[in-house]
Amino acid sequence: EPEMINPEKRAALKLLCTIGPLCYLSDYKSMALTAMEMVNLALDYGQAPELGYAYATYGMVIVTYGGGNYPQAYQLGQAALAISERFRDLSMKCQASLIFNASIHHWIKPIKEGNAINAEGFRAGQDSGELQYTGYLCLYKSLHGYYQGQPLENLLDDIPQYMYYCRKTGNRWAVDALLGLRLILNNLQGK
After folding, report:
1. H-assigned helices in 66-170
2. DSSP assignment, residue 60?
3. Is residue 151 within 8 Å of 160, Cβ to Cβ?
4. Which label site among 65, 93, 122, 163 has the fewest CB atoms less than 10 Å from its CB?
5. CA-wise closest residue to 87 among 115, 58, 53
6. How far is CA 11 from each of CA 4, 5, 14, 75, 80, rounded to the nearest angstrom?
């Protein structure tokens, strides 16, 4: 498929990609509209690195609002990873890995198989300087460990290193989420 070359459309795509996480945290319907607009830009004007985020986010929207069309969402998640590979964009690979693994992958494949996606996304994020999403990946590594039935003690042992990383990189949201998870895990242990 051709690459998006129109500079105005590329700028619009970058802007939509930037506001997507804000919409996710504040108004899920706006995030869905943002993801759909990004995919429409791709259909009309060609492919670009930011579509790694867009395809994964659109897949997440399909899982949430699309009546559970998990195979279609899974295909979009795979397309997100493929487009980030095509453009060799490690930041987008990190973002796509998080969204695909946290919201889509486990509907089709065993959750344990997502550990490799999480690890690859984290490496890509570190190599590209994508500090926001690497922090989110720390949280989801712990959450998925819980969902996989890993011993609570092991999960609690890992949280301090993730919190240190997130504090060091200034990811307050991830720190707060990890603190909340630690409270839950301690509570489950009767502490």
Report:
1. 70-86, 90-103, 114-128, 131-147, 152-168
2. H
3. no
4. 65
5. 53
6. 11, 10, 5, 26, 19
Q: pLDDT averaged over consecutive 10-residue blocks of the chain (191 residues)?
A: 94 94 87 94 95 95 88 97 97 97 96 97 98 96 96 97 97 96 96 89
**Backbone φ/ψ region at 46: left (φ over 0), alpha (ψ -120 to 50), beta:** left
Asked if 159 and 142 touch (Cβ cutoff 8 Å), the reply is: yes
Residue 98 burial (CB count, 10 A): 26
Q: Give the type of residue at 58.
A: Y
Residue 119 near residue 100 (C-beta atoms within 8 A) = no
Conformation bin of residue 89: beta by default, left when phi > 0, alpha when psi is -120 to 50: beta
In this structure, what token pair is assigned to residue 110?
A: 């065993």
Q: Which residue type sits at 134? A: T
The structure tokens 């065993």 sit at 110
One-letter amino acid at 13 equals: L
What is the predicted pLDDT for the residue at 27?
86
Q: Is 3 helix (H, G, I), strand (E, B) or coil?
A: strand
DSSP state of 1: -
Tokens of 63: 């899982």
